[in-house]
Write a structure and sequence with these properties.
The chain is an alpha/beta fold. The protein has two domains: 183 residues, NAD(P)-binding Rossmann-like Domain (Rossmann fold, 3-Layer(aba) Sandwich), CATH 3.40.50.720; 201 residues, 2-Layer Sandwich (Dihydrodipicolinate Reductase, domain 2). The strands form two sheets. The protein has a nine-stranded mixed sheet with strand order 14-13-12-11-7-10-9-8-15, with helices on one face. Strands 3-2-1-4-5-6 form a six-stranded parallel sheet, sandwiched between helices. Strand 11 and strand 12 form a beta hairpin. Helix 8 packs parallel to helix 10. The longest helix has 21 residues. It is globular and about 70 Å long.
Length: 427
């Protein structure tokens, strides 16, 4: 998304000209001083320019307010690919040497999950602003420690939750918050694929390095790689944090050289009785991914950019006659009745959230917001907290599956955010 496209997008979404966007997405305040930052640079270092890191670099390299000045990695093919995007960047094999460079304002961390924790702490200690790819850390304790470190640092902290900047999701949540669809009744979220998540390797000894997502030592699998995106939609829409979670995980289909689940299901419970279901199967892709926000007057599917009202126009006369006949025939039987009218239901084609197809998934805007925040040295409200809870809920769901029991969100990891209250004030 170019700068011109971004300005038009912000105008369309209501940020420019006194709209209501900030009520739903207050992190967009990062763009409030964009005109005044023209000509200024955010000097950024990339720690871990693998496939995801290179994807992020592809956007940063297009931003005239960003200079990618350094990269750090131990894998030469990743270094070579990153240099093709940022040919003037310094190269470090040790990320700590990159952090020692006083000319670097901020870092983007896109490494395996198990090393996020130490890298983020070291980056804050080095006085850098931090963008950390989801999930933030490998454990509940580590994630909480990272958040406390961020508060103490006075630096900017972003997490790679790009749906916060996706126009489809912004519009969907705005309509939900406005009461357009009534009260939220529940959530169905899912992300289905049909592949083993394994990447080709040049030699066997590099398997764990390249395919780290498949090994418990480095990864929590589906929950921290996929679910973290979708669970955040529930808290964003509800403006609450769920208090309990139960679930089950298994290795069902992809059994070769794999330690993390390829099939998971979790139920997250809010204190008002609303439930958020999360499912992911990695051996059947027909239904793909979606978050279905179900309300008493309508349902929203932000990934498809569509919404559906419960009340729809009457069916054509012929179909209505068929339905009436079926209802008359089966009305007294327990397996059918007046609610079983699939022909009528199929007539509901829904409405589009936006009048145009958005470009991308919000990643470009997320990174532009990070650059603006680095230049102004102002943390946008709530974005760190949304990222924090997305990680914690993912980790708690994984723990519930591992322990095969219902878990309550631990008090010691609650923040003063939404319906949760921290037990103590951070140092």
């Amino acid at each position: 998304m170019t700068n011109i496209d971004r300005r038009q997008f912000l105008k369309n979404m209501g940020l420019i000209g006194g709209g209501v966007l900030l009520a739903t997405s207050p992190w967009f305040s990062a763009f409030s001083e964009q005109k005044h930052t023209t000509g200024q640079l955010a000097r950024i270092g990339i720690i871990g320019p693998g496939s995801r890191g290179q994807f992020l670099m592809s956007f940063l390299a297009q931003n005239p307010k960003v200079e990618i000045v350094a990269i750090a990695d131990i894998y030469q093919p990743s270094i070579d690919a990153a240099l093709a995007i940022a040919p003037n960047a310094k190269v470090y094999k040790d990320y700590r040497k990159l952090l020692d460079d006083k000319s670097i304002d901020a870092v983007v961390i896109a490494t395996p999950l198990d090393v996020h924790y130490q890298m983020v702490l070291d980056a804050f200690d080095a006085g850098k602003h931090v963008f950390c790819e989801k999930s933030i850390a490998y454990s509940l304790e580590e994630t909480h420690n990272v958040y406390q470190k961020y508060l103490q640092s006075g630096k900017v902290f972003f997490v790679g939750q790009q749906r916060l900047f996706d126009p489809r999701y912004i519009r969907a949540v705005e309509l939900v918050h406005a009461g357009t669809f009534g009260e939220i009744s529940g959530f169905r979220t899912f992300w289905h694929r049909n592949n083993d998540w394994r990447r080709p390797i040049p030699s066997p000894e590099l398997d764990e390095h390249i395919n780290w997502r498949l090994y418990k030592k480095h990864s929590k699998g589906i929950m921290t790689e996929l679910a973290c995106h979708q669970l955040q939609i529930g808290t964003w829409a509800m403006r609450q944090i769920p208090d309990k979670v139960m679930g089950h995980g298994a290795i069902t289909f992809w059994k070769e050289k794999r330690e993390v689940y390829d099939n998971v299901s979790c139920i997250y419970m809010f204190d008002n009785g609303v439930k958020m279901n999360y499912d992911s199967v990695l051996s059947s892709k027909f239904y793909g991914l979606e978050e279905q926000i179900m309300c008493n007057k309508g349902t929203v599917e932000p990934e498809k950019s569509k919404y559906y009202f419960e009340e729809i126009p009457p069916a054509p006369a012929f179909l209505q006659l068929v339905n009436d006949m079926e209802n008359a025939m089966f009305g007294s039987l327990p397996f059918a009745g007046t609610s079983w009218v699939p022909e009528t239901a199929n007539q509901n084609k829904g409405h589009y959230l936006l009048d145009h197809k958005p470009e991308g998934d919000g990643t470009s805007l997320l990174l532009e917001a990070f650059a603006e925040a680095v230049i102004t040295q102002k943390q946008p409200p709530l974005i760190a907290e949304e990222g924090y809870y997305a990680t914690q809920l993912s980790l708690l769901g994984h723990q519930a599956m591992e322990e095969e029991r219902t878990l309550v969100f631990p008090d010691q990891f609650k923040l003063n955010y939404l319906n949760h209250k921290a037990l103590s004030t951070p140092l």
